[in-house]
Write a structure and sequence with these properties.
110 residues, globular, 8 helices, mainly alpha
């Protein structure tokens, strides 16, 4: 499911519909509750859903995305680490969120 959302989420209008349908908490749950491929797909889906939308970034933080993404940086899968870094980089566009990411234990440059 996360892989399919990754493909659909590139369109801002579709991303807004997906978020409104409640996808963010489900993606956050997948970040820590499935196999490596599922974790990577969930992180990539979050990245794509956030796009340039500050509101979706805040909603992702409120859904609890930061800590599982930070934890995923230490995953054994290169792909999972890369996708988590991408999602965290997108979140860090907001200075307040960037500070939260650092407090959660992510290494700089966030």
């Amino acid at each position: 499911a996360a892989g399919a959302l990754t493909s659909l989420a590139w369109d801002d209008k579709i991303a807004a519909i997906i978020v409104a349908a409640g996808a963010l908490p489900l993606m956050v749950e997948l970040l820590s509750g499935c196999l490596d491929e599922g974790k990577a797909n969930a992180a990539k889906a979050l990245y794509n859903l956030m796009g340039d939308d500050d509101g979706i970034r805040v909603a992702a933080v409120e859904a609890g995305a930061i800590l599982p993404l930070v934890e995923l940086l230490g995953d054994s899968s290169d792909n999972s680490r890369a996708e988590a870094a991408g999602a965290l980089t997108s979140l860090a566009c907001d200075d307040n969120i960037a500070a939260i990411i650092l407090v959660a234990g992510a290494p700089p440059p966030f």
